[in-house]
Amino acid sequence: MSGARRGRLFLPALCVLCALLFAGLGAWQIERLRWKVDLIERVEERLAADPVAVPPPASWPRLDPRDIEYRRVRAEGIYDHRRTTLVDALTERGTGNWVLTPLRTANGTILVNRGFAPKGWTPPQGESAAVLVTGLMRLPEPEGRVLRPNRPADDAWFSRDVTAIAAARGLGPVAPFFIDAAADGSGSDYPIGGLTVVRFRNTHLIYALTWFALAALSLFGLALTLRTTHKRG
Q: What is the CA radius of gyration of the chain?
């Protein structure tokens, strides 16, 4: 094949390749859209349901994250305030801390995010009376991505990493999730519960349309290229 012929085939081949690539990306975004819509529907259904008992420890190793996130639960136990961990937080109330306190239950220890407190707030000491906690099951936040690394030696925490917190506080085995406590309605100042933000960004349809439009432009470019080549030929 001559160099001139290879040159004439290059642009059509490039247009076809681009069209296939963009169409593939558009189809992938459609799949992501279906997943996101399904996620939103599942979470909305869970938020509207009555709270259920926390899964027993025997089931913890087998829990599917997709089945537990944002599920409304209840747990009864005693707060161990002496082992409270303050995790850096930015909320609608400003900067402050999430107050994570171990809840000792008959079925094991569960970390509970009792809510927001401003910088300088000091948690109580000792243990609480028996309490009934209701809230949302949440997945832990291991370090990485946009979160700053925790510094356990300095007692500086930036992610709600239940495994790391349990190790630093000497809690022993804990649940592989934490509970975002609902507002308790007690009227006490801090911590303030019920601040969980359940919002999912869904721009997959816009991205899909963009990719499909680029695929269409690539096909249009292919048609123009073939037309020009035919005229020259």
A: 27
Number of alpha helices (DSSP H) and beta strands (DSSP E) in the chain: 4, 7
Can you give the residue ranges of every domain in the chain?
A: 1-70+200-233, 71-181
- The secondary structure element, H or E, covering residue 22 is helix 3-48
Q: What is the pTM of this model?
A: 0.71
In angstroms, the CA 108 to CA 182 distance is: 21
- Strands 85-91 and 72-80 turn out to be unpaired
Taking only the tens place, the pLDDT of each residue in 76-122 is 999 999 999 999 988 878 889 999 999 999 989 999 999 999 988 88
Distances (CA, A) of 180 to 32, 77, 196, 222: 27, 15, 7, 55
